[in-house]
Amino acid sequence: MFSPPLSGSSQSGRSLSASSAVGSYARRVTTVSSQHPVVARDEHNSPRLHAHTRVIESSADLLELLPRGDDALAWVRHGEGLVGWGAAARFAPSGPGRFAQAADWWRDFAANAAVTDEVRMAGTGPVAFVSMAFADQPGHSTLVVPEVVVGRRDGVTWVTEIGVGTHQRGSRTAVAMQPIRTPSTVRYAEGELSVTGYRTAVAEAVRRLRAGELRKVVLAHDLVATTPAEEGPLDSRGLLHALAGGNPNCWVFAVDGLVGATPEMLLRRRGTEVTARVLAGTVWPRAGIDEDALAASLLGSAKNQEEHRYAVESVADAIRPFCAALDVPGEATILRLRNVLHLATDITGTLTGDPSLLELTGATHPPAAVGGTPRKAAVALITELEGMDRGRYAGPVGWIDRSGNGEFGIALRCAQVNGNTARLYAGGGIMPDSDPDSEVLEARAKMIPIRDAFEQLTDLG
Q1: What pTM did the predictor assign?
Q2: Which CATH number does 187-235+263-460 carry?
Q3: Rounded to whole angstroms, how far apart are CA atoms 280 and 346?
Q4: Do 126 and 51 form a contact (C-beta atoms < 8 A)?
């Protein structure tokens, strides 16, 4: 059990010791003294996990609160969201049934936990950080219930502590803030699918599309980044800080070593409301063309508009059976990011019944924005042409609470960190009139945020 390195005092009067920061990264040791009810027990008299949520007074940057990088968990945008560390519980679903497995496990976990929630907002009480595999095979996915979660939304900051036997009266715990490790160098190498191989795959996909086998497919390739082994494993916190600073309109995330910044909200559930931000259709900066001209060209592109329409329809069709009402705007808008511009459509629905976010996501994944149209044919072609395991890249990533509320983005602009190496991913939607050389350039543009994050690490080292 860990105590969050927070400053200020809680609404209940429990003291939280002050902390100091050195440079841009905090280095703290904090002790939290608290009084909690005795841990609850189930019908077999076995200890149950207890989750206790309370308001705290803190204006600290959420990412600055992460005490170490090896188990950092995050979902943050514009200074709001959730961070966590430790693992009170884990679950690793896999295969074609991974979404149903995850939904069943989380439903049972949430029902059996003893919860004291003084805040009662979406994201309070027990929370699982979730990262699901893109493909059915092998489909290795992960749910992590942190020992400590710190959340912030609408000016309210809270902490949730989760564990067995750690909430007994008079408990006292502490956690040390480890310095963020910054590598001296980063070396890059081709991944499982080289840039040349990616271009070849795109050309073959275009041939298949023009032959009428399918209407759209989304391909990707990878890049391997390596830092000196003697300097220790990569620290996810440094990447999170760099991604947040360079991509303020994206959700920065970290779950079980997958670290990135996604601009795309696959699904958000708040009570009876479900929303999605669909992105498909892209342009990127070019010499001599200003951003407004780029936006106009994107809006006027028949290829990009058709690609976007497929993506919107795939999400709307997937969630429509769960909704009493569904609002799907007829025209896309422009989302302007540092490295690219996207066509964007925000979908809003009113749910019937009580489907959890995991159930809704299982029905939606993979949307045409990262899979293609028709879905089954597109996924089969991805497997054939890429010849690599995407892992959890382009899969749903985010969090879910005990009421089934939460937020899942699509894991884009990301890297899977493993020790001192990381796999970076990027790709794009392929249409019958796609140009392979242009698609290579688009993937390069989409790789910029995560590559820049690695370069910023070496600048600090």
Answers
A1: 0.89
A2: 3.60.120.10
A3: 12
A4: yes
